[in-house]
UniProtKB/TrEMBL annotation:
InterPro entries: Gfo/Idh/MocA-like_OxRdtase_C, Gfo/Idh/MocA-like_OxRdtase_N, Gfo/Idh/MocA_Oxidoreductases, NAD(P)-bd_dom_sf. Gene3D superfamilies: Dihydrodipicolinate Reductase, domain 2, NAD(P)-binding Rossmann-like Domain. GO terms for molecular function: nucleotide binding. Residues 141-337 form the Gfo/Idh/MocA-like oxidoreductase C-terminal domain. This is Myo-inositol 2-dehydrogenase. Residues 1-129 form the Gfo/Idh/MocA-like oxidoreductase N-terminal domain. Pfam families: GFO_IDH_MocA, GFO_IDH_MocA_C.
Length: 429
């Protein structure tokens, strides 16, 4: 398979390295594309195989020329979220399939354009929901599929982002909804996809609330950072700020972003307390599914720890799953947890609760990434996937609809019916 990658920021590395290091006997990266020439050169250097002429590079404005000259079979889209739809559609029209970073896109207009293009061309898009492939999350799917707790009736799902990872969304392009759809689309697409997949259903009604409670100018003053600057690199109080991002002290950030600033003026270290940030940091949603299941969901982005907590209520009992990814942030360093920080408890009616052995794997996202990449780049070498973990345009669409409806509910103060919302836009999934 001939592969072109569009977007050479940090997220493309997973795909690039997997092809170059693990699947070069089956696939070839024939082109790289980015709006920033510096990052493009770094990516090409990393992707080039010894003894070859290297990988062809194209600036974003030359994407159509890339397609015409290199004729890729598949385009990997790893650009900022609001650009996904443009490249997906252009790839479809050129006869290419697509592998897309989550989320599929950020709003209903772009979603309809993707769906229409897919119906018109018959091309395929895979959205890379790596959380589905985590052994621990797959175990939950297997328990539910087996009927271990009977029929699932209700879910409580809480996701905690710590003050390093969570804060990062407020200093980058993600901090404006027109770029990312807000965290309820950009980040929660993972979580809503897990719920859709676990439950084997789709969301119908959403009522949500959300606000920016922590990453605000008033909090900066409360923390003694009243003299802060617009970015960490030239901030007078950076040395006393727990949220400082020192790109010059991090080789990867320095080479990928700091040294690329002169080409496009993109600053990776904007102040997380800026007044003009347009996304929420505290969000809750109540969701009703077509199956009748109801779910309560909470996302916070300034927690003292990072991970998830989820409880499934069923007619025979319940499942409680907890994963501590980071114990906390101490002196600016994140204390990552080990495999034993993942627990799953099965409690059936009339029985004592049982702690189950939780499978885990090696690699990022709890061992999920290597498994997902195997199914993407070497499906014949993998076992048949009885859990249905691959995600197409339909799954990608449903994963963002909860977040889009939640954003609409926050804005209007009313519950949003997703089928009504889709009919009003002429969208069919």
């Amino acid at each position: 398979m001939k592969i072109a990658i569009v977007g050479c920021g940090s997220r493309h590395k997973m795909f690039r390295d997997s092809v170059v290091e693990d699947y070069s006997d089956k696939h070839e990266i024939v082109a790289l594309c980015d709006s920033n020439g510096h990052r493009l050169r770094l990516a090409a250097e990393a992707a080039s195989q010894p003894g070859t002429n290297g990988v062809a590079t194209y600036l974003a404005g030359d994407f159509d020329r890339l397609i015409a000259e290199q004729k890729p079979d598949t385009v990997v889209v790893a650009t900022p979220d609001f650009l996904h739809s443009d490249y997906i559609i252009r790839a479809f029209e050129a006869g290419c399939d697509v592998i897309c970073e989550k989320p599929l896109t950020i709003d209903l207009t772009r979603l309809k354009m993707i769906l229409d293009a897919q119906a018109r061309t018959g091309r395929k898009v895979m959205v890379t929901f790596n959380y589905r492939y985590s052994p621990a999350r797959t175990q939950i799917k297997e328990l539910i599929m087996s009927g271990a707790i009977g029929t699932v009736t209700a879910v409580d799902f809480r996701w905690h982002l710590d003050r390093v990872h969570g804060a990062d969304y407020f200093r980058r392009w993600h901090r404006q909804k027109e770029n990312s759809g807000g965290l309820l689309v950009h980040k929660s697409t993972h979580h809503f996809d897990l719920l859709n997949w676990w439950l084997g259903s789709v969301p119908v009604d959403v009522f949500a609330s959300g606000r920016r409670a922590f990453y605000r100018p008033e909090m900066a003053v409360e923390l003694g950072l009243g003299g802060r600057g617009t970015r960490c690199a030239d901030c007078a109080v950076a040395s006393s700020c727990d949220f400082e991002l020192n790109m010059d002290g991090d080789e990867n950030l320095r080479s990928l972003y700091r040294e690329a600033e002169d080409e496009d003026g993109y600053y990776r270290d904007r102040c997380v307390f800026d007044a003009d940030i347009g996304i929420e940091d505290t969000m809750q949603a109540h969701i009703r599914y077509a199956s009748g299941v109801t779910a309560n969901y909470t996302l916070t982005s300034y927690s003292p720890w990072e991970g998830l907590e989820i409880k499934f209520q069923g007619t025979k009992g319940d499942i409680t799953h907890r994963h501590v990814e980071v114990h906390g942030v101490f002196g600016g360093e994140r204390a990552h947890a080990g495999g034993d920080a993942v627990t799953t408890e099965l409690h059936l009616a009339g029985e004592h609760p049982r702690m189950l052995d939780v499978p885990h794997g090696e690699g990022h996202h709890g061992g999920a990434d290597p498994v997902m990449l195997g199914y993407i780049f070497d499906p014949e070498g993998m076992e048949p996937d009885r859990f249905g973990r691959a995600s197409d345009h339909v799954a990608g669409g449903w994963s963002i609809l909860t977040g889009i409806a939640a954003n609409m509910s926050i804005e209007t103060g009313s519950a949003v019916n997703i089928p009504t919302m889709l009919r009003a836009r002429g969208i069919k999934l």
